[in-house]
Design goal:
The complex is a heterodimer of chains A (145) and B (289). By secondary structure, chain A is of the alpha/beta class. Chain A has one domain (3-142): Rossmann fold (3-Layer(aba) Sandwich), CATH 3.40.50.12280. Chain A has helices at 20-27, 63-72, 84-88, 119-142; strands at residues 9-14, 41-43, 51-55, 58-59, 78-82, 98-100, 110-112. The longest helix of chain B is centred in the N-terminal third of the chain and has 33 residues, at 3-35. Chain B has 11 helices and no strands. Chain B is 74% helix and 0% strand. In chain B, helix 1 packs across helix 3, helix 4 (89-108) packs antiparallel against helix 5 (113-144) and helix 7 runs antiparallel to helix 9. Chain B has one domain (3-288). By secondary structure, chain B is mainly alpha-helical. The chains are: A alpha/beta (145), B mainly alpha (289). Chain A binds chain B through residues 2-4, 6-7, 31, 34, 36-39, 41-45, 47-48, 50, 72, 74-76, 137, 140, and chain B through 29, 33, 36-42, 45, 48-49, 51-52, 54-59, 189, 192-193, 196-197, 200-205, 208.
């Protein structure tokens, strides 16, 4: 195991979520679930983050923000789409202002479905994201990323 | 203790301090988690964090900031080495301030408003803390008749009940230096809604690793200053000082978890008030008694 997977820092961004998934993301940090036991810190700084957790579908107003956050994060980085809206657009998919899931704007590595996604499945998604993080780190060392 | 003894102590500090500081930070996070009824990260978590920073891609918004942060690390190490080599107390204060200046310069060198606000708040914190630090040095001089740390320890005058005022003021001020609530204004993991990461917003990768390591060095040096209040040149004094330093660090963790963040105005005013009443009061007490 590399050190990256032992201390993944999370950047949480609410694209156009109804706040249901956001509350569940924050619930992961409470004493009951305690994400920090995996060394995970909820940071607000994209330059120090390893995982980007995005909730909600992307719309025209925030696609620039999502792109910028992604570009500001140093490699290796992993994007986790939390909730069905972030995965595919969910019930808002056909709305005139919605572009679709997060993967219409930036590459997504892990999809966590659910409405709202349960804390258990979010933690599962993050742990799955760590495998991707490790693979990316190995690729980075080989110089293929 | 003779010159060789002080030299060995300084070398031991330079090697052991990052290890001890890292474990201290890990215990700190574990204890904080337990106080919040969480399981908490492993004790070695700060070490994992720093190793991770080393693995990450390096992003630098202004190339000069890496130089400034390296200087910050260098001067924090020099401060600690001077302290543990038994050199002049005033020199320790000035070197620490110089290190601090480099950190603020590094934060100002980027265009980010968050890091600029962080840098500004760091300066306010320094303004609040420095007077207290100077009063400590003055009282140490009045008690032992010397500014040299080796003379202070060797004089047999410490510990003294006369220094209780300045000791309490120092405990108050050290919260700022340890970057604990209610004074974690300039940079904090908990303040990301307030100012992202403040001072360290623009730092990532190896630069951030250097900041963490300097923090470990600095914490051990600050605990060393607490121990100095109890130093009488014997092993017993050393052990009592060590225990006192650890107890005070525990109290700081407790305060960290029990208080909300203050505004910089309150922090500065209270810092000066405490410094003036307890610090200057103690100096006046020395002159009158």
């Amino acid at each position: 195991m590399s050190y990256s997977t032992k201390s993944p820092w999370i950047l949480h961004y609410d694209a156009s979520s109804c706040n249901g998934c956001d509350i569940e993301v924050l619930a992961c940090l409470t004493p009951l679930y305690d994400l920090e036991r995996f060394g995970i810190i909820n940071t607000g700084d994209p330059k120090q983050a390893d995982l980007l957790l995005i909730t909600g579908a992307v719309n025209d107003q925030n696609k620039g923000v999502v792109k910028q956050l992604y570009e500001q994060m140093p490699e290796p980085k992993v994007v986790v789409a939390v909730g069905i809206c972030a995965c595919s657009g969910g019930v808002f998919r056909e709305c005139y202002n919605i572009l679709g899931g997060i993967d219409t704007v930036i590459p997504v590595d892990v999809y966590v479905p659910g409405c709202a996604a349960r804390p258990e499945s979010i933690i599962d998604g993050v742990v799955k994201g760590l495998e991707v993080l490790e693979n990316k780190l190995n690729k980075m060392r080989e110089g293929t990323l | 203790m003779n010159d060789i003894g002080w030299l060995i102590l300084a070398i031991v500090y330079a090697i052991i301090a990052p290890v001890a500081g890292c474990i201290l930070a890990g215990v700190d996070r574990k204890l904080s988690a337990r106080m919040q009824r969480r399981q908490g990260p492993p004790i070695m978590q700060p070490y994992y964090d720093v190793r991770k920073f080393m693995e990450k891609e390096q992003i630098t918004s202004n190339s000069v900031q890496d130089f400034y942060v390296a200087c910050y690390l260098l001067f924090i190490i020099i401060t600690g080495v001077l302290f543990f080599a038994g050199q002049d107390f005033l020199l320790v204060i000035f070197t620490l301030t110089l290190g601090e200046t480099f950190l603020v310069l590094a934060a100002y060198s980027s265009g980010s408003p968050f890091s600029q606000i962080g840098a500004q708040r760091e300066l306010y914190m320094a303004m609040a803390f420095e007077p207290i630090f100077l009063f400590v040095a003055i009282c140490m001089y009045l008690e032992t008749g010397s500014f040299s740390i080796s003379d202070m320890v060797g004089s047999g005058e410490l510990p003294s009940l006369m220094m209780i005022g300045v000791f309490l003021a120092f405990i108050y001020g050290i919260t700022m230096k340890l970057r604990k609530s209610p004074f974690d204004l300039s940079m904090s993991h908990h303040a990301h809604q307030d100012l992202v990461r403040g001072l360290t917003t623009e730092f990532s990768g190896k630069t951030l690793a250097m900041i963490e390591i300097s923090h470990w060095y600095e914490n051990i040096m600050l605990l060393g200053i607490i121990a100095l209040f109890f130093a009488d040149g014997t092993i017993t004094g050393f052990i009592i000082g060590l225990i006192a330093a650890l107890v005070i660090y525990f109290v700081e963790i407790l305060i960290d978890n029990g208080f909300a963040r203050m505004t910089w105005q309150t922090a500065l005013k209270s810092g000066w008030l405490v410094g003036l009443v307890l610090g200057l009061g103690n100096v006046i007490a020395y002159i009158l008694l």
